[in-house]
Amino acid sequence: MIQEETFEVAVIGAGAAGLAAAAVTAAAGKSTLVIDREDRPGGILRQCIHNGFGLRYFKEELTGPEYAERVTEKAEKAGAELRLGATVIELTKEADGSLLLIVLSPKEGVRKIRARAVILAMGCRERNRGNLAIPGSRPAGVFTAGAAQKLLNIEGLLPGRKAVIVGSGDIGLIMARRLRWSGIKVEAVVEIMPYPAGLTRNIVQCLHDFQIPLYLEHSVVNILGRERVEGVEVAPLRDGMPQTDRKFHIECDTVLFSVGLIPENELSRSVGVALNPSTGGPLVDSNYETNIPGVFAGGNVLHVHDLVDFVSEEAEHAAEMAVRRLNGEPSGVGTSPVTVESNLKYVVPNRCRHGRDTRFAFRSLIVSNNAELEAEQNGKILWKRHYNYIRPAEMLIVDLKAELLKEEGELLFRLKKGEEK
């Protein structure tokens, strides 16, 4: 017979988001279970041995493993229970309003977990070569940047001797530096966009400081080699198309892909959570509650963040809203849709609750040193802010006070580019 347990809150994922959320709900006196398929908590942080984490959330610069240890300790001290080496294979909404999780683990077999609220914190996964359809055979030596990071930092194994990195995402940039530290030559970073995809600090610290070439508006058009990677062919782009008559060869034995992250939402989709095509994550309101009552989301499962500190803060907010729901507090008098236009890729949340302080997160589609972000509702400009520095790699975070969000009607954000200084 399948054993069944009941908790007030079930958190799916024991990374920076899930642990931060669990600390909040457990501290509020809600019985909290954190479920993660890995054998240790901390998620991807455990393999990020570089520093730069925690300056905002812990007010101290930490390495990834140190951040993971701190947030794990915070959740456990608050009273959260961690169920590791366990995978949620099914999530359903029951007729009585509760949420049922089917959890599978080698140690305990199949178990049923009932919860009054669920917080989705599954994080994201890397895009890989298959997402890009790059021609060539399937030789050894092709990795995602995260897989190579785990191989090097956790397993202590070198992925190769001479590498090319496809895409300038932050993990790839950090790995460029890490490879150099390990004696591996990094021949180039190849990026299809006219600007880098990673944070400016990583461009400087991981490429410029090591004199690693960055080819913007270039594409890898072929991976050479049969048993092992022998090189890549790279071509410049014109109007988004490779100019194969100008392609050139780079010799290497390793190719790392750092071409973006995808929020992990197969489980969300199975329970009927509506997803945002612009982010790949759930559509949520100001409470970070999805269209399924009692199901909340926060962190990289919702949208890909640039800083782990923002991941934890956002998950804490989702957890606070879950506690309010469990306490029977009214969720708000009404909501209005939130949309974007003009140079913005997305906004989170997608509906704002009237009369409630709300944090909005955006991604720019432009590079600018002179831009203005404004919010409009019912033909009236509610708020605006000037920016001297805008890059797609860096999230824009805006906090609007409750008094600005009292009226009904679509709330529209737009980013206007001014003359470059």
Structure description:
This protein has 421 residues and is an alpha/beta fold. It is built from 8 helices and 26 strands. The strands form 6 sheets. Strands 1, 2, 3, 4, 5, 6 and 18 form a 7-stranded mixed sheet that branches. A 5-stranded parallel sheet has the order 8-16-9-10-11. It starts with a strand and ends with a strand. The mean pLDDT is 94.
How are the elements arranged and paired?
Layout: E1 3-12, H1 16-27, E2 32-36, H2 64-78, E3 81-84, E4 87-93, E5 99-105, E6 109-120, E7 124-126, H3 129-132, E8 142-144, H4 145-153, E9 162-166, H5 170-181, E10 185-191, H6 200-207, E11 214-216, E12 218-224, E13 231-238, E14 241-242, E15 248-251, E16 254-257, E17 261-263, H7 266-270, E18 295-297, H8 308-326, E19 335-341, E20 344-348, E21 351-353, E22 358-364, E23 371-377, E24 380-387, E25 396-400, E26 411-417
Parallel strand pairs: 1-2, 1-6, 2-3, 6-18, 8-16, 9-10, 9-16, 10-11, 19-26
Antiparallel strand pairs: 4-5, 5-6, 7-17, 12-13, 13-14, 13-15, 19-21, 20-22, 22-25, 23-24, 23-26
Helix pairs in contact: 1-2, 1-8, 4-5, 5-6
